[in-house]
């Protein structure tokens, strides 16, 4: 009978069990999705990296500069080797149809088994033939049989405007997994002699050796044979599987960090879910007090009643965990679909592989968590004597005593955690980032443990402070809600901790991401003060010039806001004269300290460059020459000295202002025109609009420059826009993933708030009936519970925001303080959103308990017959 009773009770209270079931499903789905998703990403990277090594059995990499060809020949002659080829790579400029690209090129292996098979066409067999990756072919509009050009820098002669071009024939295309997995996988294969000539390096120098084994020789046997021979040459010998696993570990290190973060979030979700489950079973036990007492009256023992509650928990844990596993596998499969949309190749798994552990661990964890969370309510169900339980329960008092031991533990943990956090930030700035991070993480865990341990002390104090305000300013429902919020501190603190964990972590990640983004962008701005730079153009004897119409073409690209030209000329420093004048011009009586030197002189409009530059470069004004420190040292220049410059068009005298760095002297556009009328533009500084997609805009600028230049790939297009956008994208993506998961924890906490209010309604049913009998309306009763829910949620959210701000700032200082100058930022919009969600959570959580309390008639609730 006692086995049938729990199932009957579960059916009759199915609606109440939904809250706990949702919490379990979410927690176990996290566990499953993290395990399966990490395996999918690792398998994808492993397969993709393996593509670059074809059918190699062993890969030899070097810890020194390079391998000589003699060593490759030695490997070929070794026992068990059927073929071996060395590999070296170089970047190659390819131009076709006024488009250019810079892929990585490598020689085609002489051993057929070591060649990547073409998806179309065939391998190159003669000089001037290449096989290229499909992504490069798509970019340049190439197919099998197309002709592509590459500039040959070694053939340049004095006076050439650019390097001569060499024509190459595309003989085949192959699927490339992309540089995201392994940046050393080549995108172009040509003959060994061609690639060596393009690289300008001896053909005999290699950075790795690919080896195939003879029939009957395993990869492990071949590795063991070659390792002693190559150890003295700095060779690291791995089987192809070991090498792919090694590179995969390097590629997925960031993913493993994210997996560790997700694992931490899984722990958070389990803790929060455990609180919700405990509260849920506490509510169930309170609702069924009379039923359990009746069972005791007809002969059920305390052990049977306790086991009945635990049976309910076990069944609920198993069923909800199975559902959570299914949800987690579904999320992992969605990740596979997303990967296939990004990387359409045979290396991406078609289905998420689910291991036995990925099923067993979530099932065991979800069930065990549910049973452990239900143990407290199960014990509580047996503590009341049968006859006493049949009587109406007394209203619990508002007072509670806080043990001195709890206060001492809370203070100790908070103090120790604070010291560790400060020490971590200091050690990072002075010595080791790794040690600082370890101390910082430990300090954060210890201090937050102090907050959780002291929640019973901290929460009532905060609630009491707010309650005093409500009692003075609010109406009758608000005053009663303020009293009810602090009448059961332990249960209220448990509910608030569930919300506090989620809000604190969301805030920490938000503040950390905002501060990291501000720090990264500041560093990028210092190195790349402008979004995009077109040029400078280099030639054999001067800085060169941009083709006519370049500025107009770049300005016409969608997403470009400003294109500022830098004029350039070569000038002769005829003399350096001491003493500053109030007006520029040749001073009288000053000593000449200069000799003759040809220098680059650049001119730009100060107002225009100030609009496009992200940092203040220098104070550029008419009559002033900005001289880099290295050039100033050549002439022993000081600020305020006068510099005489001469060019074919004229002579100018400029007052000197020394800058830390620079490749030449910088003057205003007006002064440069006076020195060299008609001086051409050597480069453009380009500013992008705020809504421009950086990567697409930079590519469009490259296309526009190629069109104007007639396919001249020697004109570089660089800048910080793409890097800045990539950093922002990575940070935003990680932030959105983490916040999305943490908001689920907040959702679980919302269920916990609802359970707390439900339990409060059950315990205060007679009190609510008395209030109704005294004239309180149903609406006022619902308002009272709404205020109570909002009060608990807001106090928890405000405390979480404060802790998250502190942890986010200290975490950013610890992570980056030893590398960069950290800029601390506060995402105020996120703070407002989080606080708004908390208020909404409190209101939503009060709806069902409020309806339950308002439905009961006063007479019925008072037990009057």
Automatic annotation (TrEMBL):
The chain crosses the membrane at residues 256-286, 307-334, 354-374, 407-428, 434-463, 497-516, 734-762, 783-808, 828-848. Keywords: Cell membrane, Membrane, Transmembrane, Transmembrane helix. It holds the Pfam family FtsX. Residues 577-596 are annotated as: Disordered. It is found in: Cell membrane. This is FtsX-like permease family protein. InterPro entries: ABC3_permease_C, Macrolide_Exporter_MacB. Belongs to the ABC-4 integral membrane protein family. GO terms for cellular component: plasma membrane. Residues 265-374, 741-857 form the ABC3 transporter permease C-terminal domain.
């Amino acid at each position: 009978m006692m086995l049938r009773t729990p199932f009957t009770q579960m059916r009759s209270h199915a609606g109440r069990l939904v809250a706990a079931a949702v919490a379990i499903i979410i927690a176990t789905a996290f566990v499953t999705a993290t395990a399966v998703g990490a395996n999918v990403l690792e398998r994808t990277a492993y397969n993709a990296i393996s593509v670059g090594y074809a059918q190699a059995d062993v890969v030899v990499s070097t810890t020194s500069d390079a391998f000589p060809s003699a060593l490759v020949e030695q490997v070929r002659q070794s026992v068990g080797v059927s073929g071996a080829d060395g590999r070296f790579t170089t970047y190659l400029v390819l131009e076709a149809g006024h488009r250019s690209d810079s892929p990585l090129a490598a020689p085609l292996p002489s051993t057929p088994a070591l060649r990547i098979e073409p998806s179309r066409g065939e391998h190159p067999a003669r000089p001037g033939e290449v096989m290229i990756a499909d992504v490069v072919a798509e970019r340049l509009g190439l197919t099998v049989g197309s002709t592509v050009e590459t500039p040959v820098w070694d053939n340049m002669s004095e006076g050439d405007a650019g390097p001569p071009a060499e024509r190459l024939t595309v003989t085949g295309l192959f699927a490339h997994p992309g540089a995201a997995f392994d940046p050393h996988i080549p995108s172009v294969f040509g003959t060994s002699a061609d690639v060596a000539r393009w690289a300008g390096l001896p053909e005999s120098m290699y950075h790795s050796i690919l080896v195939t084994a003879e029939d009957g020789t395993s990869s492990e046997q071949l590795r063991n044979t070659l390792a002693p021979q190559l150890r003295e040459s700095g060779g690291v010998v791995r089987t192809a599987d070991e090498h792919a696993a090694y590179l995969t570990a390097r590629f997925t290190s960031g993913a493993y960090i994210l997996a560790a973060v997700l694992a931490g979030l899984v722990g958070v979700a389990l803790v929060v879910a455990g609180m919700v489950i405990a509260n849920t079973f506490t509510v169930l036990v309170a609702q069924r007090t009379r039923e359990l007492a009746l069972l005791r009256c007809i002969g059920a023992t305390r052990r049977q009643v306790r086991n009945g509650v635990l049976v309910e928990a076990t069944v609920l844990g198993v069923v909800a965990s199975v559902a959570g596993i299914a949800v987690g596998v579904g999320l992992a499969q969605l990740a596979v679909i997303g990967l296939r949309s990004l990387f359409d190749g045979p290396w991406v798994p078609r289905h998420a592989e689910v291991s036995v552990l990925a099923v067993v661990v979530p099932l065991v964890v979800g069930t065990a968590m549910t049973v452990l969370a239900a143990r407290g309510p199960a014990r509580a169900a047996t503590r009341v004597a049968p006859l006493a339980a049949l009587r109406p329960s007394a209203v619990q008092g508002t007072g509670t005593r806080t043990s001195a031991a709890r206060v001492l533990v809370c203070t100790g943990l908070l103090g120790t955690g604070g010291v560790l956090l400060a020490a971590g930030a200091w050690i990072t700035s002075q010595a080791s980032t790794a040690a600082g991070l370890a101390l910082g993480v430990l300090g954060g865990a210890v201090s937050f443990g102090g907050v959780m341990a002291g929640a019973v002390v901290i929460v009532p104090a905060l609630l009491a402070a707010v309650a005093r305000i409500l009692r003075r300013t609010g109406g009758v429902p608000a005053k009663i809600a303020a009293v009810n919020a602090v009448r059961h501190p332990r249960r209220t603190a448990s509910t608030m901790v569930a919300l506090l964990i989620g809000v604190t972590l969301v805030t920490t990640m938000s503040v950390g991401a905002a501060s990291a983004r501000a720090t990264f962008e500041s560093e990028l701005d210092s190195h790349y003060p402008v979004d995009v730079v077109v040029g400078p153009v280099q030639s054999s004897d001067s800085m060169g010039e941009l083709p006519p119409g370049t500025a107009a073409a770049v300005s016409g690209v969608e997403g470009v806001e400003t294109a500022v030209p830098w004029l350039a000329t070569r000038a002769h420093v005829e003399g350096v004269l001491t003493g500053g004048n109030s007006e520029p011009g040749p001073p009288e009586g000053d000593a000449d300290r200069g000799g003759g030197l040809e220098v680059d002189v650049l001119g730009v409009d100060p107002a225009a460059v100030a609009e496009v530059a992200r940092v203040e470069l220098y104070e550029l004004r008419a009559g002033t020459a900005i001289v880099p420190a290295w050039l100033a040292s050549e002439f022993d220049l000081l600020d305020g000295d006068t510099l005489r410059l001469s060019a074919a068009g004229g002579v100018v005298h400029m007052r000197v202002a020394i800058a830390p760095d620079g490749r030449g002297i910088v003057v205003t556009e007006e002064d440069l025109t006076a020195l060299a009328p008609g001086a051409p533009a050597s480069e453009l500084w380009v500013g992008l609009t705020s809504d421009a997609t950086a990567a697409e805009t930079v590519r469009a600028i490259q296309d526009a420059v190629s069109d104007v230049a007639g396919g001249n790939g020697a004109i570089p297009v660089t800048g910080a826009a793409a890097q800045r956008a990539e950093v922002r994208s990575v940070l935003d993506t990680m932030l959105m993933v983490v916040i999305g998961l943490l908001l689920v924890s907040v959702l679980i906490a919302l269920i916990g708030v609802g359970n707390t209010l439900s339990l409060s309604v059950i315990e205060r049913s007679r009190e609510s009936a008395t209030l109704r009998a005294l004239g309180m309306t149903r609406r006022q009763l619902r308002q009272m519970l709404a205020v109570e829910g909002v009060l608990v949620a807001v106090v928890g959210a405000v405390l979480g925001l404060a802790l998250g701000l502190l942890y986010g700032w200290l975490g950013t200082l610890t992570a980056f303080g030893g590398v960069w100058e950290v800029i601390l930022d506060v995402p105020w919009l996120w703070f407002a959103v989080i606080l708004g969600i908390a208020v909404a959570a409190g209101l939503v959580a009060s709806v069902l308990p409020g309806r339950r309390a308002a439905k009961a008639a006063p007479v019925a609730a008072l037990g009057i017959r």
